[in-house]
Structures are given as structure tokens and as C-alpha cells.
Specification:
The chain is an alpha/beta fold. Helices cover about 35% and strands about 25% of the residues. It is built from 14 helices and twelve strands. The protein has a nine-stranded mixed sheet, sandwiched between helices. A three-stranded antiparallel sheet has the order 3-4-5. The two termini are about 30 Å apart. About 10% of the residues have low confidence.
Length: about 325
């Protein structure tokens, strides 16, 4: 199939597993229907040259058979399935569509994943990548390879709006921490219980999207979650309050099969291109940026984390863990 035709199909076709739908006639409007700028973002997305893709067998296969990406599907402003179109909306979803266009994929399959299923789905070859607020850590990098990081966030804390007993982490003694299994929030809660709050308890759930409902029910007192995700929940729920405190930096990465360094390099090249063109910032402002309470961040956007800067994603990590020297990002 001619490459130009494949690129056109990549832009207009979205096959959503668990909620199949017909190919949209106007993909920009259906991708982010509440955002007037989304159509222009997708239309102006970069397209890789043949030379960009020939370095990666995975990228070449995707160009022939399609791209499969794991996403949340129920996280507002990041990746949420539209009940009207069946397509996905949000910052992560926008990047998924842009990546599909960049790779010239003839179709895009978005599969819902959570913190329990995302790694097995990549390892088993059921998805090509996971784009799901996936924090890069050195431990995770032992079994997954990460492109990016593409966003810098951090661990935040949310409580019930009516709860006046918790206003900072100094009030955590004896409280119940609500966390998602296998998340960086669970790791932080475990460390805080061990070092600062021995009387605190931890309540775990399968998915990060369950935490807010658990908080409302009174299953616990404070959620430990990524601040970006908490902003997305506060966008639709005025019963929760986000504490004005953040611990640690969280670097979001795009997870792929372990040691597929050539595909990582292709994705990193894509991320650099959408950042330098301004599309990355546009996508953030049209989604998460709409609810960012910090006026400086709302105006200027988040700090670009820089490609291959997070421990576990650096070039030297690829050399150490995989015995492969990554190609320079152009």
C-alpha cells in the first residue's frame, strides 16, 4: 500500500477494543470533541520519513499492520473513552493518535489497561506500547523499556472536601492511605509507614481510577496518586480536595518491550518533534492545562522533562541493561 494512503488511513481510523466503532469522518473533532484546537493538533502532527523507521523492525511492522497502544480509558483529560463516539479523549490519547500518524500505521487499536495488566500486555505482545501515565522507575526498567519521559509530574494527595483534619502530610499519623497496587503511590505509602507514620494503614485497589470512589465511601482517608491524575479527578468531582503538597518527581514514559532500543529511539524522535513544534504544549493546554490551578503553569505549561533523562530511561541504562548503544535523537 502506498505510504501516503497508509498515513491517511492512520489519521482517520481508530479501532477501539472493547468498544468498536466505525472509522470517523472527522478524526480531530471526534478525538477531543470538547476541544476546538484538537483537529489542528492532529492535522499538524509530524510524519516520519522512511529513513526514520527503517532502523526499527517494530516500527516497520506497525507501518504495515497497525499500532496497538494500552491506555486508561477512564481518566478524564488524560485518556477517557467517549460514550458518544467510542473514541478516546485527553492528553495521553492525543499523543497516541499523533504517534500513530507519525508511524504511518494503517489503523490504531486502543486497549484499556490498568496498573495490573499493562506490563503483562506488553510482555505478551498484545500491545506495542503503553501510554498510561506510566511512571519510569529503575525497577520497572529491568523488565520494560521506556521511551521519553514525555511529562513530569509528582505524587500528590487528595482528601474529602469535608475533612478538615488533614491539611498536609504532617497530619498523616493514624490515617488510612488509599493506593493502587504496583504504583509509585503504593511504594511511597509503604516508605512513609515504615519511616514516619507507623500507626498509618494502607488500603490497596487494583486501579488508580478506583481511588477517588474509595475515598468518597470512607474506605480510607487520603489517596496517594499522581498529581496529574488527581487533577483529572478533581475536574469532575467537587467532593475531593487536593493538598497543596507534592512529594517526588514522577516521569511519565511510553513503555515498550524490554530492550527494543531501536523502537525506543524512534518514539523518542517523535517526542522531540512534537515538543519542538509546539504540539506537545498545545495538547497539554487543551486537556490537563484546562484545570491546572497554578497560574504560572497554566500560562507557560509544565517543564519539558527532556528525552532520556529519568533513571531507567537514559542512554547509559540501555547500554547497561540491553548491551545496545542508542542512536542519537535528531
Amino acid at each position: 500500500m502506498p505510504r501516503l494512503l497508509r498515513l491517511c488511513l492512520a489519521v482517520i481510523t481508530a479501532v477501539v477494543t472493547m468498544a468498536a466503532c466505525s472509522p470517523p469522518s472527522d478524526p480531530g473533532n471526534q478525538l477531543l470533541p470538547d476541544s476546538g484546537g484538537s483537529q489542528g493538533i492532529i492535522a499538524r502532527g509530524p510524519v516520519a520519513t522512511d529513513a526514520d523507521l527503517t532502523v526499527s523492525d517494530t516500527a516497520k511492522r506497525i507501518g504495515q499492520h497497525g499500532l496497538r497502544i494500552g491506555v486508561s480509558g477512564n481518566t478524564p483529560l488524560l485518556s477517557q473513552e467517549s460514550p458518544v463516539s467510542g473514541l478516546f479523549e485527553g492528553f495521553d490519547a492525543t499523543l497516541a493518535y499523533l504517534l500513530s500518524k507519525y508511524l504511518g500505521a494503517p489503523n490504531l487499536t486502543l486497549q484499556k489497561v490498568d496498573t495490573q495488566t499493562r506490563e503483562p500486555l506488553v510482555k505478551g505482545g498484545h500491545v506495542d506500547a503503553v501510554l498510561n501515565t506510566y511512571s519510569i522507575t529503575e525497577k520497572r526498567a529491568e523488565s520494560m523499556t521506556f521511551a521519553g519521559p514525555y511529562l513530569l509530574s509528582g505524587q500528590g494527595f487528595a482528601v474529602r472536601q469535608v475533612d478538615t483534619t488533614i491539611n498536609s502530610s504532617e497530619d498523616f499519623a493514624g490515617k488510612r492511605f488509599i493506593v493502587a497496587k504496583n504504583s509509585t503511590g503504593e511504594k511511597l505509602a509503604t516508605e512513609l509507614i515504615a519511616t514516619r507514620f507507623p500507626t498509618a494503614k494502607m488500603v490497596t485497589f487494583t486501579s488508580a481510577t478506583e481511588l477517588t470512589a474509595a475515598l468518597e465511601r470512607g474506605d480510607g482517608d487520603v489517596t496517594f496518586n499522581d498529581r496529574t491524575i488527581q487533577l483529572s479527578q478533581a475536574y469532575i468531582n467537587n467532593k475531593i480536595r487536593i493538598l497543596d503538597e507534592r512529594m517526588r518527581d514522577d516521569f511519565y514514559g511510553i513503555a515498550i518491550k524490554h530492550c527494543d532500543v531501536a523502537f525506543r529511539d524512534v518514539i523518542n524522535g517523535f517526542l522531540v518533534k512534537i515538543y519542538e513544534s509546539g504540539l506537545w504544549l498545545e495538547a497539554w493546554k487543551e486537556t490537563v492545562g484546562r484545570v491546572e490551578p497554578d497560574p504560572v503553569l497554566k500560562e507557560k505549561g509544565p517543564v519539558w522533562p527532556g528525552i532520556a533523562t529519568a533513571p531507567g530511561s537514559r542512554d547509559q541504562d540501555m547500554t547497561t541493561m540491553c548491551g545496545v548503544s542508542p542512536a542519537p535523537v535528531s
